[in-house]
Amino acid sequence: MNETRGALNFVPAEPRTDHRFRVAPLVDIVFLLICFFMLTSQLIQSHKDPEVELPIMTSPDAAKEVPAEVTVNLRPDGALSVGGRRIVLDDLAGVLTAHLARARRSGEAVRVVVRADRRQRFARLDEVLDVCRSIRLPQIIFRARGDE
């Protein structure tokens, strides 16, 4: 009984592939995401006046509001700016009426945001609100900072 057995082969028939974790594609994807978010954040235009200091508000519902179409900034010196452009109180009704007419043509609701500086007197804010009431704005939103 002479059996012939084949020799044991310890070398695999196919070459082994290296299963290392490759970092380069991951870095590329993260870099592309960072570029995307940087570009989109630069494209968002905000008409916030840096001179206006908002009062502090503690309501949790303020974060859920829809962004406004028209922003009226009431600066500490009493000056007004709408959409980044300084205007006088007499022109505010015309500017807001133009926004209201444009929104009605497109079928949207006009939302006006009033950002009044906390150092501003209420009498000046009341003048702005009188203009808003005189043109019958359907919605006015007041902006304030969250509790810090």
Unreliable spans are none
Q: What percent strand? A: 15-25%
* CATH class annotation of the domain at 56-146: Alpha Beta
Number of strands: 7
CATH fold group of the domain at 56-146? Nucleotidyltransferase, domain 5
Supply the number of helical segments.
Answer: 3
Question: Portion of residues in helices?
Answer: 25-40%
| Strand order, largest beta sheet | 4-3-2-5-6
Attribute tags:
148 residues; 5-stranded mixed sheet; 7 strands; single chain; alpha/beta; Nucleotidyltransferase, domain 5
Tell me about this structure.
By secondary structure, the protein is α/β, with parallel strands linked by helices. The chain has a domain at 56-146: Nucleotidyltransferase, domain 5. The chain has 3 helices and 7 strands; from the N terminus they run αββββαβαββ. The strands form 2 sheets. A 5-stranded mixed β-sheet has the order 4-3-2-5-6, covered by helices on one side. The chain has a two-stranded parallel sheet with strand order 1-7. β3 and β4 (85-87) form a beta hairpin. α2 crosses α3 (122-134). The protein starts with 23 loop residues before the first helix and ends with a strand. The model has no long low-confidence stretch (mean pLDDT 78).
